[in-house]
Design brief:
The protein has 13 helices and 17 strands. The chain has helices at about 45-60, 90-105, 135-145, 155-160, 205-215, 220-230, 240-255, 275-285, 305-315, 340-400, 405-415, 440-450, 485, and strands at about 10-15, 20-25, 30-35, 65-75, 80-85, 110-120, 125-135, 150-155, 175-180, 185-190, 195-200, 265-270, 290-295, 420-425, 430-435, 455-465, 475-480.
Amino acid sequence: MNALSWLNSGVVWVEATPRSMQVMRGGKVRTWALDRAGGGGLTPACRAGLVQELTAFLERKPWQPRTEARCLLSAGGVTLRRWKIPCSGEEQTRRVLSLQIESELPLSPDELAWGWTKVGELGVLQDVLVAAVRKTSVVEILGVLEECGLAPRLTLAALARAGCVVPRHPVEPAEAWLDVGHDISEWLSMDTAGPTRLRVLPWSEQSLVREWCLTPGITPDMAEGWLQRVLGGSGGLEDAAKPGWDAAIRALAGSLSGLPRGGRLRLTGRLAGARLFRESLAGHLGSGVVVESGEHRGDRAVSDGLRRLQDDTKAGAVSDGLWLATAVQEAPTVLNQATPRKWALVAGLLLLGVLLMPYIEAMIFLPGLESKVAAVKARQDRLQTIDRQADFLRHLRSNQAPYMETLLVLGKTLPPGSKLESLNLNRKGEMALRVSTRQPQQAAEFRTQLTDSGFFSSVVIEEQSPTPDRQKVQIRISGQIKPANQRQGLAFLADPPSTNAPPGSAKPEGIPGRPKRGGPPPAGAPGPVPRT
């Protein structure tokens, strides 16, 4: 056990919605209803009572440091985006995302509480998930938590319910999550890599009640009774309730866009456990969409997002997840007011003595440090330019076609007396060339040598025709170059042996079927063409 573990008061779990705030500490859970004024903020009486009751619920001692609070936010006012940016370090990625937010969102990064996490990587690009919310919409809840001695870290309740605070491994098929609440619903669409879109839907449990009340003769009490019957799973609906039920489910299905064909729709909330609701929604969606409950575990006294986030944290899976950066700072530990002044003075003198030597050392090395910092700042712009140029060169190197290797192969395989008239080569490794040879049989020999070189996966003679003067034969050949990993280790691409190589060292063999230059031709080969 850590010697300072007695200072740690654990982690507090908080979920804040426009209507309530739920706090879980250890095995205790408490929920507060929130009263809001006309402008949307908490009323003074609600804020004062919330601070007083939450402080008492936390049982935090005055000398303890701030307790970490992992807080879930609803989807209202949240922007969720997926961007592809160049791969780089964490600090460089944050600077690039700041510029991206500046150009694509209506607010600057300084006006937002935002965070990011990487969901995939493809070559020189990385796929990044970014979430942002206006700071003014969360500053009130942050102020309440900070006043109660908490150090909050913010993330989204929709991501926690789906287990995507840290993106999971790619799953097949893609899925979507729908949390049906009392007044609103939250819709999270996902592809195989991770979340793509987050929306707030006006459909909720009360949509069913309102639709039923539109039927003549149906009172709100009757509609509430039908809703409780559906939530309890006690049989089907009465005939009078079926038209309103179908109309409400049809309206919900029409608002769910982007569902993958044959994918899964996972439900959370009280209606997620109602089999009648799941079957009716699946029937209106069609397209082979599977509708199932996404509830994690446990009773409904604790929200599903808090339960899932707590379990993922215990498994060590959310330490580097998507957390929204805020300006809340960790407050230092304060002394208990009941501490005697004498001991407080002694502790202050000891602390001053401990801090004295580092300050003196800092004053001695300050001039040299300032010069180094100035030199680094002066070279910062140049280093950024070098980084951009290096990234560009690496991109060119990884995508360029093998021009030199192709010319080397053609130079070693062209028949004697032939002429290379044209050569076309693209990035995909597709080659087209035109060659004129002296004898017709040299075309087949040339194709055989190209195939035996191991450099090409396919070589095809597209056209073979004599020249107008009947002195030569023109050949048009197309071929496909093998990928780079299959071309490695070819003998003719190796560096030539040094003249200072020791006796008996192995010499790289030439292309199969190609006679060595300067040696006698193989048996049956045509003799040299006589000069006229």
